[in-house]
Specification:
Number of strands of chain B: 9
Number of helices of chain B: 4
Largest sheet of chain B: 6 strands, antiparallel
Chains: A alpha/beta, B alpha+beta, C alpha/beta
Radius of gyration of chain A: 25 Å
Distance between the termini of chain B: 11 Å
Oligomer: heterotrimer
Mean pLDDT of chain A: 95
Shape of chain B: globular
Largest sheet of chain A: 7 strands, mixed
Low-confidence stretches of chain B: none
Structural class of chain A: alpha/beta
Distance between the termini of chain A: 22 Å
Shape of chain A: globular
Mean pLDDT of chain B: 94
Low-confidence stretches of chain A: 302-311
Strand order of the largest sheet of chain B: 1-2-3-9-8-5
Largest interface: A-C, 205 and 207 residues
Strand order of the largest sheet of chain A: 1-7-6-5-4-2-3
């Protein structure tokens, strides 16, 4: 049975905290300013703990098992990250305290800016954006500002491949530009003919996810970036899939001008059930002046960290032609601390090993599932993920969703469903590097068994999941009745 | 998927229908369109008095999975909205040609109607999709 | 250090299945000239070493002494139960709940969070959170533009709105061809109402404002009436702790209530991660942005929760979405919910009252110091002190001689507010600390 709402557990007079008594003289609060009621739940501390523990038991998480959600990079989150972010000297500092009293934190941010720039092949990095989509908005605004600064105001179109995440066209619109869709070719690459046809003096840039959402590294990457540059445009890199090429290639050296990094994917910071994240943005030298600020600068130097023997002094600096700040203060610092910790524990070789093992795990799964599910681009080597189809011969009524829901009964989180949109019945599978061979084998075994069930006993799939805390939920009722608050 | 086509109506390629009633027209979406959308949860009806332009988006219909624009099949001014859809949008699914009508407009360019398909042409068109 | 479980033997077996001789070969699609570059990074550290490195940095940050800084981020006591809840792996290491059958914990927690934020602000609906107070404010402006169906391009910002929030609104909307005005002079609510025209989409006010000043419920209601008469929306930015005692924006006519939720159980953590709460009137729900959890039933008729109204969002509506937001601040919203659950209405009220009494005590003491004076009018837990010398100088002395972190130097954002310091007191500031601050200010101011 479900856990009652906190509101249903509330009893007048119960409290979960004790507040210190007043140690200063009272000052009257004018009655006209005061609210009359505050209908929050009234529960004891033990009620709070039991409530959330019972809710926790209704969730599946990475710490429980495989979470092969394509493009989400649900890797294991090292526990040391949590200790790091909670160090009092990092967790209890105020963002506006004088820089002289926060040099340790600023040094850490400067290090991270420099390490991300080095990993991505970029000149400068801003740690301010809070998530991938936030970084995209920054990137497109930077591209727009760069064109404007050159007096080129006709460039109003951003080209977006049809395999892109929905955030790409949405970010483009938010930035006041027009998204133009570019189809993929039969090998899953950007269709060069269409790209060429769309490139003109209206092109502000191209948003490229590479490896793309089919899990493929575009075979024509250098040609694509050159074509866009030759047409006067810039190339935005969506870094959601960067785990595949971490330490293997530097996007900034392959013609990507600006890119966001999902620190909550590639650099292992926990996703928290939907955030917080961090969408740090790296740019080539020509775009450095447009980044959102402030960024950390070492006095007398650029925005990087001086790794010299003498302790540098760090200060806040807003780039001279900044697009402006995109959040209050400096970024999701607690997330940055975790990412810093992760990178420092790996070094160059360790980072490359992450990509190699992530890609090997994905190719192993792709090879083993090849006979079980259709894999449209299975003839190619995939990167960190691949896209299979939820279609099973002899089971015409079975859809990707049914397979996903049945996987839950076998103790796995399902892959990403129905994305990318260009593959019908898509199941996008990303195992990450932190899964071992036995886990991958048991996943293959589960999919194989489900494929047999689909033919022999399809209702098992249609009605799945059977073992989860709740069964399939009525989304139509939720949308029609729209009950979005307790008692509301 | 077999879709019903009401023989008395005229249709746009974007799957809206029109029923001419003198100087006015009633507008809705076809059975094919409601089927494609699946369970409709919300219809964002345009306000009375709003000028609709033929072939331009005039409202959005939402299902759980999609939000699709409805394109005005003809130009005109909205004179009445099907207010019952506010509470029961699912009627567009169950009775797209009848109780699931969307708006009534006063035609501003009645000649446009001749550019729409009749039921036979629309049925043939559906066969090509 | 590595978190990769597979051994060389595992890899050899897997490569055989894949039909490749080495992992390096898997990257043949990467242009050869760019494959496997040198990375100039510091060498890998063990867990023990990395913690020592972090500790060295953490110790260089002042964090133990009294602190009177606020200005948008606030130090409050966080009950132990909050960190317990957000540390649970089931919440911390789950993704956005795309599979509701195995994400009911997150979804119900968000539903409860929405319910508590709606009640706290006096609004009808809340989303699952935005990145922070500043981005929530920008999203509120965009929602108002959508409510006006693109036909109103004016945005009026109060000068009392946090300078970062005003900047973020401008950054977000720079491509939208808007007229953002109102904040060039520090005016009261009636002047703001007067600047509202038929092309205004919304008016944004902060209450208590950046300088700590409270706009009374009657002035807010008058502003709301004027804004509504012009056909615009009133967006109110509020401090959630203040709502433990003050009249909420929903009761004073606001259409949208947003703000920084950090004070609710989230570590101050040098500026993030925080959460932006976002609450509004129900009629605007389809123009709103961000995720929203809703109640429904499962196949067997049992109550359950799902994300609803997804068709507003980027993954379905793509370029026509109400916002590009995807990842938000779920774990921070969970902290806020656990905090509000533990505090309850009584605890929250007590904390709000402590903030009030301590700040007012501090203001009286400082006003009595030679050379100092304090801004008039009602305030909550922040106030402006006029000082006898530049704030930067005072703060340096407070820090170096007394180990005190002083207030915010307003001249950093407002050149005409020379020698003005924005001070904040919360329940964490004891009388002893406040007396110590006053003694130090007195010494510094006259030294």
């Amino acid at each position: 049975m479900g856990e009652p709402l906190l509101f249903e557990k509330s009893r007048p007079g119960r409290a979960g905290v004790s507040v210190p008594s007043r140690d200063v003289p009272a000052t009257e609060i004018p009655p006209a300013l005061q609210r009359q009621s505050l209908p929050l739940p009234e529960v004891a501390e033990v009620d709070v703990v039991r409530h959330y523990l019972r809710l926790a038991h209704l969730n599946y998480c990475v710490d429980e098992g495989l979470y092969p959600l394509g493009s989400c990079t649900m890797k294991y989150n090292p526990k040391v990250n949590e200790v790091a972010a909670r160090l009092p000297g990092l967790a209890r500092i105020h963002p506006l305290q004088d820089p002289s009293t926060a040099q340790g934190a600023m040094e850490l941010m400067a290090d991270l800016q420099a390490m991300i720039a080095e990993i991505g092949g970029f000149h400068s990095v801003s740690l301010q954006p809070s998530a991938g989509a936030h970084g995209e908005l920054v990137g497109i605004l930077v591209i727009k500002a760069w064109h404007a600064a050159r007096g080129d105001t006709k460039r109003t179109r951003i080209l977006v491949p049809d395999s892109a995440h929905g955030t790409n066209p949405a970010s483009t619109t938010m930035a006041g530009l027009e998204a133009v869709e570019i189809p993929s070719d039969s090998r899953g690459n950007v269709d060069l003919l269409h790209l060429r046809a769309q490139l003109d003096e209206r092109t502000a840039g191209l948003m490229l996810t590479n490896p793309n959402t089919l899990g493929l590294f575009d075979e024509n990457l250098l040609q694509i970036t050159k074509l866009v540059h030759d047409a006067g445009g810039l190339v935005y890199g969506d870094g959601a899939n960067f785990n595949a090429i971490l330490g293997v290639a530097k996007p900034g050296l392959m013609g990507i001008d600006v890119m966001h990094f999902n620190l909550h994917k590639t650099f292992s910071t926990p996703h928290g059930g939907g955030g917080p994240g961090s969408g740090a943005v790296g740019v080539v030298q020509a775009l450095a002046d447009f980044l959102p600020g402030p960024v950390v600068a070492s006095r007398g130097g650029g925005t990087g960290s001086a790794r010299s023997g003498t302790a540098p002094r760090y200060e806040w600096r807003t780039p001279p032609r900044s697009i402006g700040r995109v959040k209050s203060f400096h970024g999701n610092f607690g997330v940055l601390v975790r990412a810093w910790t992760y990178i420092r524990m790996h070094g160059a070789e360790g980072l490359r090993a992450i990509a190699e093992n992530a890609v090997l795990n994905a190719n192993y799964l792709q090879a083993r599932l090849a006979g079980v599910l259709p894999i449209p681009h299975g003839d190619r080597t995939c990167m960190h993920e691949f896209v299979a189809q939820g279609k099973i011969p002899g089971a015409p009524d079975i859809r990707a969703l049914d397979i996903s829901k049945r996987l839950i009964d076998y103790g796995f989180h399902p892959p990403t469903n129905y994305f990318p949109l260009i593959v019908p019945e898509a199941l996008m599978i990303e195992p990450t590097e932190t899964e071992n061979l036995e886990t991958l084998d048991s996943f293959v075994e589960a999919v194989t068994t489900i494929a047999k069930e689909a033919v022999a006993e399809p209702d098992l799939l249609h009605e799945a999941p059977h073992t989860s805390p709740v069964r399939r939920l009525d989304e139509v009722k939720a949308a029609r009745e729209l009950k979005v608050t307790a008692g509301g | 998927m077999d879709s019903k086509v009401d023989p008395a109506l005229r249709y746009a390629k974007t799957h809206e229908w029109v029923r001419i009633e003198g100087a006015e027209a009633v507008i809705g979406i076809s059975d094919y369109a409601q089927n494609k959308l699946s369970d409709i949860v919300f219809v964002d009806l345009p306000a009375v008095g709003k000028e609709l332009k033929a072939a331009a988006a005039c409202m959005v219909i939402e299902s759980v999975k999609a939000a699709e624009e409805v394109f005005a099949p003809v130009s005109g001014t909205v004179v009445e909205r099907n207010e019952s859809l506010v509470k029961k949008p699912e009627v567009v699914n169950s009775d797209p040609f009848g109780a699931g009508w969307l708006v009534r407009v006063k035609l501003s360019a009645p000649a446009e109607v001749s550019g729409l398909m009749d039921a036979a042409a629309y049925t043939a068109y559906l066969g090509t999709l | 250090m590595s978190f990769i479980p597979n051994t060389d033997a595992d890899r050899a077996r897997m490569l055989q299945t894949v039909g490749t001789s080495s992992t390096a070969e898997l990257f043949h699609d990467v242009p050869a000239s760019h494959r496997f570059p040198t990375l100039d990074l510091p060498p890998a550290l063990s867990e023990q070493e990395v913690l020592a490195e972090l500790d060295r940095r953490a110790r260089r940050n002042a964090h133990e002494g009294p602190c009177f800084l606020g200005a948008g981020a606030y130090r409050h006591f966080i009950p132990s139960v909050v960190d317990y809840v957000i540390s649970r792996s089931e919440f911390a290491t789950a993704y956005t709940p795309y599979q509701p059958e195995i994400s009911q914990g997150t979804l119900q927690a968000i539903f409860e969070y929405q319910s508590m934020i709606a009640r706290l602000t006096g609004m009808e609906v809340s989303n699952a959170s935005h990145y922070d107070g500043a981005t929530s404010t920008a999203e509120a402006v965009i929602m108002a533009l959508n409510v006006a169906q693109g036909e109103r391009r004016g945005v009026v910002l109060s000068a009392g709105l946090h300078p970062h929030y005003r900047e973020v609104v401008r950054t977000y909307t720079q491509g939208m061809k808007l007229e953002v005005t109102g904040d060039d002079a520090d005016t009261g609510p009636s002047e703001l109402a007067g600047s509202c025209t038929s092309s205004t989409a919304c008016v944004v006010v902060q209450n208590p404002d950046f300088f700590g000043r409270i706009i009374s419920p009657s002035d807010m209601a008058a502003l709301a009436a004027a804004v509504h008469a012009a056909g615009a929306l009133l967006v109110t930015v509020v401090n959630p702790i203040s709502l433990g005692v003050l009249v909420p924006p929903g009761e004073a006519g606001a259409d949208v209530a947003v703000g920084e939720g950090q004070s609710l159980g989230n570590a101050i953590s040098f500026g993030g991660p925080y959460l932006g709460f976002f609450a509004f009137r129900r009629e605007h729900v389809r123009k709103s942005s961000g995720r929203i959890a809703g109640e429904t039933v499962d196949h067997d008729g049992h109550r359950g929760f799902v994300f609803t109204l997804s068709t507003r969002e980027q993954h379905i509506r793509r370029e026509k979405a109400t916002s590009n937001i995807c990842t938000n601040q779920s774990l921070n919203a969970l902290a806020a919910a656990a905090y509000l659950a533990a505090m309850g209405p009584g605890g929250l009220r007590q904390v709000a009252e402590l903030c009030w009494h301590k700040a007012h005590y501090a203001a009286r003491q400082i006003a009595a110091l030679p050379g100092y004076s304090v801004q008039d009018g009602e305030f909550f837990h922040e106030f402006v002190a006029r000082c006898p010398r530049p704030v930067a100088e005072i703060n340096r002395r407070l820090q170096e001689k007394h180990g005190i972190i002083g207030g915010y130097d307003l001249s950093l954002n407002y050149p005409d507010r020379k020698n003005q310091m924005l001070l904040c007191c919360t329940e964490l500031n004891s009388r002893e600390q406040i007396d110590g601050l006053c003694a130090a200010l007195s010494e510094v101011g006259n030294g």
